[in-house]
Amino acid sequence: MLVRSAIWHPEVVDPDALPPRPQVPAADQTLRILRHLARRPAPVAASALARDLGIPRSTVYHLLATLADHGFVTHLPDERRWGLGSSAFELSGGYSRQEPLARLGRPLIAALADRVGESAHLAILTGRDVLYIVEERAPRRPALVSDVGVRLPAHLTATGRAMLAAMPAAQVRALYPDASAFTDRTGSGPRRPAELRDLLREIRRTGIAAEHGEVTGGLRSVAVAVRDHTGWPVAAVATTWPDELERAVDGTVEDVAEVAAELERRLRR
Fold first, then answer.
1. Of 93, 125, 144, which residue sits at a domain end?
2. Which residues form the HTH iclR-type domain (predicted)?
């Protein structure tokens, strides 16, 4: 069956064999500061950054000074606040121009939607969320919550589950250390680390990552992870259809798996 070979790339048989990515505290704190500033509607005081992010105030000041030297943040002395600088906008523009995953994936996702006659999408993992970067709605199908730029809890989505199942167990534990990490949308889906472990174990066993009404009632999805040359899950391809339609899940997963495998091939060129 094509599904298993496409989900489990021969270069990486066991996801637990992948070493956890090393933690670099300064880099982590710097990126958290930039992300926090990007999400705020106005510049922020350094003391507020320290409080909201749980980073020592002295560390925040040192990191902000370095970021300012490189143009990623700017200081507004009259307001005693910090905002994003020109380098951050240049970086954003560069991503918009390149967006390699979206650029390579868009025609494949469109072809998948045409082939199966259902809506299809491409998502990446960011923290405990999935971020949708390509969405292709099939004709006469309802709009989905998974529009481009939307974030949803990874543990509830088929795309998120496909990527989590392909990650080392230690990395999943770091993302979901306790019950407080689990967001609920429809009253179903894993709510504790043990439940998520059981779900991911079943995905690895069957080769099928799916969700049924856990994001939006009346809809179900299947997904397959896309891996980079190291075997790390960099994205996931999925298709979604209404409950009332009788579809062969295995056949649909095969279609999704073919697209995921082709995207992997194009990423590795």
1. 93
2. 24-86
pTM of the model: 0.66
* Same domain as 230, residue 139: yes
Domain of residue 185 covers 99-267
Looking at the structure, do residues 107 and 146 belong to the same domain, yes or no?
Answer: yes
Do 74 and 106 have their domain in common? no
Residue 46: CATH number of its domain: 1.10.10.10
The Cα 64–Cα 164 span in angstroms is 33
Distance separating alpha carbons of residues 126 and 111, to the nearest angstrom? 26
**Contact predicate 263/228, CB 8 Å:** no
